[in-house]
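Two proteins were folded this term; both appear here.
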Amino acid sequence: MRSLKIEVCCNTAADAFAAKQAGAARVELCSALALGGLTPSIGELSAARRAGIEIAAMVRPREGGFCYNGIEFETMRIDADALLRAGADGIVFGILYPDGTVDTARCAKMLEIIGDKTAVFHRAIDVTPDWRAAVDALCELGFDRILTSGQRPTAIEGAATIREMMDYAAGRIGILPGSGIRLENAEALMKQTGATELHVSMRAFHPDVSTAANPCIHFGGDYKQGYAAADVDTLRKLAALFSL
């Protein structure tokens, strides 16, 4: 059985502790997972560091696309510097030109801030018009890995393209499959892609009845009287499928 490195997409410091407990190798720390993941707070990162697990912090200033105005880009630079100073092991980000190609100029400026820490280009690659050109650009820039669903809504749907990406990258950069990975499809995805790392977000419902007195008011999320958090049991089952 091949070894598997599990990266867990975490919404909170509590998720990072759960990921560590389940045997994950690292976490991607975000806020607002319902929006695809935004920049986490310094407090969240500082608390998550106590879990004793490798942390790559998301830097994404807003939902929507990945072409940012000057103020948004400056915010990203400030956030990346602050997160690294607070102990992040790496930064996850992606910046595109209006035509969907990699904004190499701004990515280079972000990489100057990241320095020798890990740099991850996120699923912005999944909307680029030519992923091969994007992979070449990211390799030349010096990114460490790319998070991708193979330009499909889920990694299992994009498995063939992920395999092509891995073959095309030929060890120049890591290719990390993510999106829609479940306990029941993880092994098949590994076989189809040859991946040895998976990015997962396996979550379970946790009740919070503090709003029950007035159920007509909703404060966001998927549930009116609770929230989703990392599912330790399912993550453990995933780890048990492989020799870690």
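Next, the second protein.
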Amino acid sequence: MFSLYLECRQEEKDQLIAELWDRGSSGITESDLPGGGCGLRAFFEADACAPQLAGEFSRWSGRWQREEPRDWVAVARSRLEPQCVGERFFLVPEWRGDPTPTGRFRIEVNPGMAFGTGAHETTQLCLEALEREIQPGMTVLDVGTGSGILARAAMLLGARRAIACDLDPVAVELAKLPLSFMGTADAVRTGSADVVVANISPETIIALAPELMRVARVGSAVIVSGFEQAEVTGVEAVLSAGCATVRELHTKNTWSLLVADRR
């Protein structure tokens, strides 16, 4: 086993991590660098690939070293800590028994299930927005639900119904949760949602904008995230062109969230 160490800008991190997984990495750790950069250490099983990969990733100062084999499930679990998000939520790994702070809703997360453990800035931004927007008795649509964390949060905040949509086969497991589960947003009735939330890529938000507007009731809130600050203008433009008025922009590190009202 060997590890490949890379240094990159924060805005490059997610794409670089995806490339490392594609190249067969068995585990990746992250560290913050002075000046706002990010250090990535990716672990690989086949030592013979080390020089080739170091060369391919040389623009990020690719350096490799031999490593002892690791139990990556144990490593991942040891690094995931409970955290308080917003004013109301306490996110905790499902294998931990930490007590829930007074006045907070407990959501147990499993990092191996799908995107949405609460560690990412966009998930935190969406949870905070749901706190501000949801009123008891509302119907909430979660597009690209992933782990289902946002749909579950909506129910805890008093939503009468949470509709979860996702194409990822892993998300089929969400059918076991107390949610209404559908494969795609086009299966949702027109004008049926009081709040729509979508924490997905900017390209997908732009492509699905007409559907997001169709399912939202007039006057309802459409919450979108999953994009960085440099991509806000493009997302805002397509929402404004689709019968919505953008009223809020929130950021966390390099990531952004928009709240729009359906006209």
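The first helix runs from residue 10 to 22. The two ends are 56 Å apart (CA to CA). These notes refer to the second protein only.
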